[in-house]
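pipeline/complex-builder :: batch 7 item 3
reading input block
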Amino acid sequence: MSLPFLTNSPPLHPSVETNSVLTGNFAPVDKTPPTECLVVEGELPHSIHGVYIRNGPNPQHQPLGPHHLFEGDGMLHSILLSQGRAIFCSRYVKTYKYKLDHDAGFPMIPNFLSGFNGLGDVGRGIVALGRAMTGQISLTKGFGLANTSLKFFCNTLFAMVETDLPYRIRITEEGDIKTIGRHDFDGKAPVNMTAHPKMDEETGEVFAFRCFPVVPYLTYFRFDSNGCKEKDVPIFSINSPTYVHDFGITEHYAIFPDIVLEMAPMDMIMLQGMPVKCWPNQVPHIGIINRYATSDSEMRWFEVPGFNALHMSNAWEDDQSGIIIVATNALKIENSHNLDKVHFSLEKLRIDMKTGEITRSVFSKRSLELGSPNVSYAVAFRSYGGSCFGGEVLFVGMDTGDEIECDEDDGFVVSYVHNEKENESRLVMDAKSSTLDIVAAVKLPGTVPYGFHGIFLGQKELQMM
Ligand SMILES: [Fe+2]
């Protein structure tokens, strides 16, 4: 019997060709110890004391085979702002995989997301399996890269990826970044969890989920205000290996977008490329469940044709039995292996829980993937200038003490901005204004590659670590 898939390797898709993926400001950078930065424009407000941190992929070794952007080791880029000064630092998240590859001096664990594309990849997979069987690699310590997001809950800062458990991170007084270790919540969350858990600021509870390639494909769970994980709620009404990246929480509900992307691990094993498949002819659904549900028996599903929400910016309930969702809808999601061809439209969806009626509108036709939640105030716009590109921007509220009342949008927005012509990265801070006037720009000691999600932690959170 011939095995043509072993002898005829398919051509590499550009999305996993190392030379295409790791170019320009996607190329990895070296770590940077805490370094004071020059303020090159304006003045850093003394009212800000906190740290802005952005997570993103940054492979520590040259990949040996196909490499997808999402497969770089997590690197955190932080800038500590205090008393008008700025301290920048870049460090890897010291995951189990990072340590294995670091100690070996080469990528010991093969890239799984980019798929097995030929005999070389299969060989690396078999060698890794052999190492696992002989105890050189532990299968229980996770192989996640912690490269997607940063979340602060249970009084802890976590670097997260949806294929593994979170890694605890600490920011030192000097502005350095330390990895404390992988966190399994006292053994109650033993496999993986979303990189987008949601915290209810009123109650202190944290809501989360995990996707898995075998039944149950989706599992919902929550942590009480003390950080204690409650029982899993398997969502058995999902009957295929769905890919849910983000979800929404309202006062009474948890909201799950079941989009047309699915996990397809067999595709990878059969050398068919990435283990993610798109079914563009299927109809996406939104699943809504009581957020304190103990089973999925009362979960309701709503068909929403063409609504493939990868990120949810916000969700809330109105006074007329409606649930409002604001999310980035991935148009042309069948191009998900080449994100350049996907357009992200910011849309608002209302589901009437009494009548089942769904109404939709487009907030912004401008392609926006990583939206921020204060949509009531999302009326301002700034172009960073030619050849300049930003990342996820974060709102930082004005710290005026408890006595003085502030408007909801009193504060600043922060982002790393990269100038492709000058090959220079800066932190730009824009004030409350319809044109987002620049308050201060800081020249960073190195470049910050384009990455994923970030966080801003104030003085209170820093003291809790
Ligand atoms: Fe995300």
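note: Confidence is low (pLDDT under 50) at residues 1-7, 374-379.
queue -> next item
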